[in-house]
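Follow-up to my post from last week.
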Amino acid sequence: MKTTLTAFALAIILPAGAAFADDDCNAPRDRWQPHEALMHLARQNGWTVKDFEIDDGCYEIEGRDRDGREIEVKLDPATLQIVEMDYEEKDGKRARNPAPAGTVAPPQNGLFGNGAPPQVQVN
Amino acid sequence: MKSLLASLALTTALTLPGLAIARPVTLTTTLNNYGGDGAYLALYVTDASGAYVGSLWMAGSKSKYYEHLSDWYRATGGDPGQINGITGASVGAGRTLEITLDLADALFDAGFTLHIDAAVEDMRDSPNEVAVPLTTEGAGTSVRGRRYIASFAYDM
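User reply:
Got it. Predicted complex:
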């Protein structure tokens, strides 16, 4: 009986564990945006693309931003939202900076009532 | 038991934002003319026991400067995940930052406090520059910051 219970418990735990080991992006291939759409977004953001690859199920761009800093951007291939963005600072250190407002949904910390991004202006 | 139920209700409301009732709230922060570079500002919320609950906004995009927002940094370990999607530019001296967001109703009149940490390059850090209790009665009341913030108010 004890073995059955353990096996049952494992069966419940395992799917969650498997989910953790999953890719960073999980969109099915048929929903991926074309490469051209990604390059269009890069141009809009002022990025110069040096290298492009698919990593952990995400699109990944290496290049420079409009200020000339080296960047590495991981994007969801279906929505083209930024999953992670790293900058190379002038001192050569890599800093992990947060994604800017509007590029991803606000954090699910329970403070944001409807999950909509804040509207911001500086006067 | 009653307090357990209350905190359970609150936790549930906070962890299920989709179900929580929310209202649009505008946070207005005006900086004084301190004569320096743009200020980094972290707006975050603590609960009745003073524990960090979450962040509302980060003005300033480079994570390497976040350690100067020392109370926020201590609470979060500088984790960019806390502010992904709610980060914008630093705010210049004399300028006004106006943020409108849908805040969960459960945050008001329940002992929560909104804090602002401020930091300016080559000037003194100012953690907990503003700390205001979130109450329906306190809405629209302007408060002064300690160093860089001339006034802060939340309106709903």
